[in-house]
Amino acid sequence: MDAAAVPSGLADPGTDRGGGLLGRPIDRVDGLSKVTGGAPYAFERAPKGAAVAAIVGAPVGAGRVVAIDVAAAAALPGVLAVIVDDPRMPAGQASSGALPQQGTDRIFHYGQPVAIVVAESQQVANEAAALVRVEVTPATGRFDPRGEPVIDEPRIGFLPPVEMGDVDAAMADAAVTVDATYTTPVHFPAALEPHATTAWWDGDRLTLRSSNQVIGAARKTVARALGIEAERVRVLAPYVGGGFGGKTGVGAEAILAAIAAERVGRPVKVALPRRQVAYMTHHRSDTVQRIRLGTDTDGRLRAIAHESVVAQNDQGRFLEPVPFGTLPLYAGEARRFTTGLVRVDLPETGAVRAPGEAVGTFAVECGMDELAERLGINPLELRRINEPPVDPTTGKRFSTRRMIDCYDEGARRFGWPERVPDPGSVREGEWLIGIGMAAALRGNFTVEAQARVVLDEGGRARVECDMTDIGTGTYTILAQVAGEMLGLGLDRVDVVIGDTDLPPTAGSGGSFGANSSASAVVLACEDIRAELARRMNAAPEELAFENGCVRAGGRETPLADLVRGEPIVGRGHTKPGKETEATSQASHGAQFCEVAVNAVTGEVRVRRMLGVFDIGRVLNAKTARSQAIGGMAWGLAYALHEDGVVDVRDGRFVNPDFAEYHVATNADVPQLEAWFVEQVDASANPAGAKGVGELGISGAGAAVVNAIYNATGVRVRDMPVTLDKLLPGLPAV
Amino acid sequence: MHFTINGQRHEADVDLRTSLLDLCREHLGLTGSKKGCDHGQCGACTMLVNGRRINACLSLAVMHQDDEIVTIEGLGQVGNLHPLQDAFVRHDGYQCGYCTPGQICSAVGMLDEQKKGWPSYVSESLTDSELTDAEISERMSGNICRCAAYPNIVDAIREVAGKGDRQPVLEAAKEIGA
């Protein structure tokens, strides 16, 4: 935004909201369709006559495809086509940043798509896919990231290295130091809906129903990959069964489905089997992170360094920005933040929920816990001492930063002052009890977004944009914003999203979705309000909207009466401006956790978690809380269970499904508490909201690990904290 | 072949390898039941067969010719919701919604199992268990929610089971042994 200004139509949450909708814990407007099974996802409501496809993956992790024998597959009754030779076939997923190699014989990783089989049914397609024989010349693969040389200046990714002052000298001079290395494993986004696409052609126009978070970009990407104009591609994603970053790009399956539909002259649908999801879409890289912290005797940081190494294959352009969240987190003059790269022959790494912070906060927040113990200072107090007044890396002022309030409010609600600092000293029977905390921070991104709001002659408003709802509550929030701005109940607002024929947004990703699209809707409604003001012969700021009526200067008129036949169309367009450039923006929080560790078995149970979060304006208290606790549960599982294991002999994943890759289940997750410290961030965007979807995972895992240390005295630096890592160090039973 | 689903008789001519899930989704237009893994690992396909919850992806359609099958579409509809469907909306027992039909069908089956006295891993007694939060969580752990709406799912089920308000957090945690 060019100026820090709160639109006149949005009440300050500190004031009486009257009949306002915004911020209230309103049930999701798409809820009924979800609980009755009516919500259509990508593999559903295909056009009549749709054929079904299965994709064949490369049988080795490195090398070249020499020949593909399709005879047996093609001969199977019910098979429509086996496609191996189309030069547009992608060797990986595509994004607006880069296309994968197409029509190549090179194998970048095990399971890379090499053929697509189209058949009358899934059963026949699967059988035929198993009959396709792929002949290869294997090569020696780089399957162990820890065995490969580190490229210090990778020239990919968006986060350049930061070097301020002399960290080595500051560490040497420091009274108290921590120098520790932490590791995190391969992390699968593992949305419950697998990547899926239904593709059909009408003449030269292509329509895709795809499970995708960012359909506007997907449309352009698909067009580029197929060599056609973007205007000929339409992407639909009315419901997306979870994304978590994994559906930000365009999966190979979408482009292959389009190619297959063209070849067989029928609609084609394809859903990746669960194990193929792990190979044909991206995961979060494993990381190695060295944390160095040096302080005076009073705990003031003089040096802070966060040096990391992550993996990527030869096609990928993404680099996990591990230290991103550490940049503005703590004070300290000497600063060093780096991200090194190892090239591997494994599936692509990419953005998964809170790229950077999700893993970076593990290391830096565990490091702060270790530092607090060495200093003999309460971990929360150590963070308070090092709270920076301005962004310590860029020198910019913070737009809003309520970190201290999050610490205080969290400590009070959780009962942090009752913590017993000596590890391993609280016991209930055979259970060792401990508590831990961590800071949470996730950068806030303001991105370009457009929206259209149509007020019709019946006095109903329709919100339109190509935003997606991946479970984040977009349908509901946009209805609330328009309802609030125009004084309409939710029963008089319709929201149409998930269609690239509608005004473009940046979709769902980076926690920018709700705030950016909501801002565009705010501006579109302001456009309508200005037109209504003209028709009322009043100034826009004189207007008051309530119960479907507009009031100005003692007159009250139903909105419908002002429309006069032609609908009023309001357009909103928001994008980053001077204020974005001038400030350092992030969402903040404090995470607290209590664990019980079994002294006999080493089993860890999370007893309770509590987070207090600063996310700017809360758009819907119910959906915001759900996202926050969902993120906290992700942190819990990342700390204790989730562990993507690569077989370094052949580049295959050992556990690419839900049986072996353990996401949190109901029994793993206790009742979680999330609270908000609400303050409208007028610098962030016209809605005054900051990101929430990724904040909850930030710091959550570190709070769990720090609680485990407090319970047991065992400091595990290699995530996840499984019982085999705890058992050798546990105190005597 | 013929099948009775949600009280309606359907005729279908299917490949013998067709799962009960694919029968509903691909042949009968009942797409409310979801496919998350196709291997019985996630629970998104949970249906009720003769009143018991099963993973429909792990069961062949041809095994169910004489069974009473209920899917999410049969449990309740807009305007005529099952109490659990209503409770899931009010408690925000979902986010993306993909696991939700399976969660709700599973909860229906689970409550019946518990009422009949079936014990779970966390039950103190093999014949008589109280439906605590720990029992709900344990018994619902065959249904993965990657959005992790679990606390809200437990809230919704507890309410429908008539078990009142949320238990104090620590009390619930201690019931699961910790």
Task: Give an overview in words.
The complex is a heterodimer of chains A (733) and B (178). With 733 residues, chain A is an alpha+beta fold. Chain A has 17 helices and 31 strands. A seven-stranded mixed beta sheet of chain A has the order 3-5-1-12-9-10-11, sandwiched between helices. The radius of gyration of chain A is 27 Å and the shape is globular. Mean pLDDT of chain A is 95; it is low at 1-5. In chain B, 34% of the residues lie in helices and 11% in strands. In chain B, helix 3 crosses helix 6. Chain B folds into two domains: 2-75, Roll (Ubiquitin-like (UB roll)), CATH 3.10.20.30; 83-175, [2Fe-2S]-binding domain (DNA polymerase, domain 1). In chain B, strands 2-1-5-3-4 form a five-stranded mixed beta sheet. Chain B is globular. Chain B has 178 residues and is an alpha+beta fold. Chain B has helices at 20-27, 72-75, 83-90, 100-115, 133-139, 150-160, 169-175, and strands at 2-5, 8-11, 46-49, 52-55, 68-70.
Overall structural domain count of chain B = 2
| Biggest beta sheet summary of chain A | 7 strands, mixed
* Biggest beta sheet summary of chain B: 5 strands, mixed
Give the strand line-up of the largest sheet of chain B.
Answer: 2-1-5-3-4
- Please identify the structural class of chain A as seen in this structure: alpha+beta
Supply the CATH superfamily name of the largest domain in chain A. Answer: Aldehyde oxidase/xanthine dehydrogenase, molybdopterin binding domain
CATH class of the largest domain in chain A: Alpha Beta
Q: What is the CA-CA span between the terminal residues of chain A?
A: 60 Å
Specify Rg of chain A, calculated over alpha carbons: 27 Å
**Global mean pLDDT of chain B:** 93
In one word, what is the shape of chain B?
Answer: globular
Oligomer: heterodimer
The fraction of residues assigned to DSSP E strands of chain A is: 25-35%
Q: How confident is the prediction overall: mean pLDDT of chain A? A: 95
CATH topology descriptor of the largest domain in chain B: DNA polymerase, domain 1
Distance linking N and C termini of chain B: 51 Å
